[in-house]
Protein 1
Amino acid sequence: MTVPVVSGGVPIAAHDHGGSGQDVLLLHGGGRTRHDWDVFAGLLVAAGFRPVSMDLRGHGESGAAPWSWQAALGDVAAVAETYGLHRPVVVGHSLGGMVAALWASEHPDCPLAVNLDGHGNPTRPGQFAGLDEAAASAACDEMTAFLTELGQGLPEEFLQVMREIDALDLFKVYRAARCPLLVVSGDATAFAAVFPDRLAPAWEAYCLWTRRQLGAVVEECPLVREASLPTGHDPHVEAPETVLRLLFDHLER
């Protein structure tokens, strides 16, 4: 079932996959669409959930509009209201996972928010664990130059999203969680193939820093949990049954 949704004048596409029971709202990653969730949504329905997937603004069939985190959260809230979702579990992948983490900071009544492998990119030398000051600075410069080159030719709307990601302090967001928040990491070595061999050590150093930062947050914040899966960047597509079991386990807690 599809119902028209408008958020701040922007049309937002969403789809109710049917089912009954606990409502689940599914958010895709950057450059993707709600159809990433079709298989997983079918598993949710069979397991007794009611999933609704949506296209984030500027993606899929949703309208093009300036990106900001608050605007994206407003879109999620509009979909939840229009579809009559009661205290939905919010599960997001990559960009959508970051939105889910922000949702957790504003909705203490949410039973669970899940960020599937949404870790962002390095933006400063201090994010390269195990490298001395000079090596970390060089790694940051090279990584930034590579990512900038990778972004050449992309639409300005997508580059705006990337700038917002770079400006977001995810670990501050995690520490602000007001409901249970699960952060799931895939195998970072699978994503390393995006980078040339010369940047592999820099990427590994950034991933080590990310793991350490997340571990510290989990120790400090009882509401935040972490899990790792032997998948690449798309665990909900590569291993949907495993992600479903993970969802079950953490909801039961």
Protein 2
Amino acid sequence: MSTAMNIDYFVRNQTEEKLVTLADSLAERFYERAAGYDLSEETSFPFQNFKELREAGYLKLTTPRCYGGDELSLYQLVLVQERLARGDGSTALAVGWHLGLIHHYRHINVWPHPLFEQLCRDVVEQGAMINHFSSERNTGSPTRGGRPETIARRTTSGWLLSGRKTYSTLIPILDRFVVTAFVEESEQIGHFYVKKQAGIEIDPTWNTLGMRATASHDVILDNVFVPDDAYVPTSPTWSSDGNGWLLHIPACYAGIAYAARDFALKYASKYQPNSLQTTISKLPHIQQRIAQIEQDLMISRTLLYSVADRWDRDPEHRTRLQPELGLAKKVMIDHTLRIIDNAMRIVGGASLSRDLPLERWYRDARAGLHNPPMEDAVDRLLAMRALAEFERDDNE
């Protein structure tokens, strides 16, 4: 991991300095293991990383203070997740779902209070984690609105769930998770808090180009029982926070971009071929690529942190921020891909070697194109708002 240290103007106070120090210390250790997890033929899960996250108190960062957590703001969540991803993108993306969902549930207030309280106390006291499994092979991304094929059937004392979920990040380490299912009784979609039990099977399907160590295998549920008090019906308030918590995704890719940038700078500053009297950092075409990296990183990080800050400061208008939230993700992914491409061009053919981290960052960054929100959905939100504003102004 690069040791390049610069003043980060997005760290605003001593509290945030302590948070990034924590994340940086974890990232340095995770960096040393990242290649091993990524290159494993069986796509191993980074259990040691999560043991250290638990011991460091990282898993409780977004849990409410009243239950013993740190209650991080969205801005602070983005800050620590970016720093963690500089060490290992797979670990950061995986734990980001847990941290982001706790942050999300804390704000939308749709869970039965005793259930959410117990979850939070388990996070703080036991290092428990959570993820929400919605995706299915035949319905695609849940953001597209497809009806889940996972079915929830009423019993005398609760529900029986049957179906298959894809992209089940964190599943090797989870003992509980939330499942989206179609409720036959009401013909509506509901959310069920499921604990590991008989009838749950992990199908090791995850064999991907990037983010390999997230181990996002399929989960098969066969008449899995869920009690009545662990059922959360879908309601209009489910997205009342504008889904700001999803900024944990671009935060992860910001960290990968920053790591690639630092690697390229270090390489250019030290590499001197025998055809030159100086390092390649002095060459105009190398400096041009460095300048492009800096521009892309500044623009994308500024947008990301400004949107997170607006979300924190204006709780009454969070749903109105959805176009900006989506744009922050879209811009970050586009810029991350370009940053890594320029970093690889600076390093040259050596960047393709698996002995260097650039090829892993290149592969991991491609996964961002398929994380929510999708590019066309962001474009539609931006266009619809622009048209609505124009039509309103035109009618006045």
Protein 3
Amino acid sequence: MDDARRSYGYIGPVELVEQVSPDATGQPMADSNDFSAWITAQSAVDLAEPFTFVVDVSGFLRLAPRRSEHVVCAGGEPVLGAGEIAFAREGDRWVVSQVSNQSTGYCPDLASWDALAAALDGIGLARPAAFTHEVEFRRCPECDELNVVKESHLVCVFCESDLPAGWNLDRGFSNR
């Protein structure tokens, strides 16, 4: 599968999957009307911090409060992207002001930007050219632990083994 359409299965803590219910999924944004209705219903307190997002396998952006788990937002399903997103008013329109792929439940690769960009374009939201905060995830081939790569330092923080240069979370963890 090409990276732009790669889906990411949930690999986070099993106990969070128990929170998934049909009534608790993120709000899907099929068009600008959906987004306008949703954003208007958000409080000033909610708008002051980023929201949880996923891009479902149909390509729709789903939004939920920040403290929501990505797996709950996605209804327990695989996603094309996941992270955190913030919005700001620019004149008479809403724009994406910050966005990251920070989701330790799905650990999406930076290539997931393409799916998010398409979803945002589909609802007519102005956006940056890429993630404003990029998170690189790697699974250690030696100890099987999830690592967040910082400053391109490809060494496992748990066992000090070398981490692969490319994203490698396309298979589950053996210790979960």
